[in-house]
Predict the 3D structure of the following.
Amino acid sequence: MAYMASEITDIADMPRGGPDASCLDRLLETNRREYLDRDDVDDEVKRGIVTALDVIGNLFREHDRNAELVLREVADVIDPTILELGAGHGALSRRVLEQHPTAHVTVSDVNAESVAAIAASDIGEHPRATLRTIDATAIDADDGSFDLAVFALSFHHLPPTQAALVLAEGTRVANELLVIDLPRMPSVLHIAKLAAMAPLVWWPFVHDGLVSSLRSYSPSALRALGAHAGVEVQVSTNPFDRQVLRARRRR
Ligand SMILES: C[S@@+](CC[C@H](N)C(=O)[O-])C[C@H]1O[C@@H](n2cnc3c(N)ncnc32)[C@H](O)[C@@H]1O
């Protein structure tokens, strides 16, 4: 069911837990940025994190499950055109290209090094793949260029104002935007998770995982972002699994 939250004016100050976040949830936030988002961090460190994401995604079949979600959204479209934003390692696009015989996929990331690494892989040679460097908050594409845009495990990287821009831009250039991201856990479980991860924070992959957890959006935050962006959103969440948001332009 489509749900529209009442608009909140100060979207930039919205807690990650949403307008109705508890005091404890508001404490479980950080302004610290992930290494992946920092210009002062070596590209080698960033590549290491992206490679670890790819390996873990393979191990736990995350890429396959994300591809399933993408393919379900375009099941009724003949020769679908798909834009992947924030592709990182490109594994999701690779799965989609393997599993759909006619889909055309534009594989993109804001990080030009990541795009170059994907271009140097098998995807760079694929006849139905196009590689682009794209900022999801300001997409250089005409309105309605794609059937579907997808942003996986990346939405929490963006503060609320930019996140709302992604919803507006993704639904401008595509008929539907699919956001797949980490869930925001109930606070007590969240504290337990952070405590379990803390001893490994020296590992950049875990550092970014910890920061991601603190920056993940709750369902009410996602709905408020949708209302602010003026788009219809549907959110399905599970505190132990991925959170999925489907966004469309209002008719
Ligand atoms: C945690 S990685 C996720 C990679 C991959 N999608 C996955 O599922 O494993 C986050 C990615 O989002 C990208 N990213 C961050 N901000 C972005 C933006 N404004 N536009 C496009 N991509 C962005 C980063 O460069 C990085 O590759």
Notes: The chain is about 40% helix and 20% strand. The chain has a mean pLDDT of 94. The longest strand covers residues 174-181. Residues 36, 53, 57, 85-88, 92, 109-111, 114, 135-137, 152-154, 157 surround S-adenosylmethionine (CB under 6 Å).
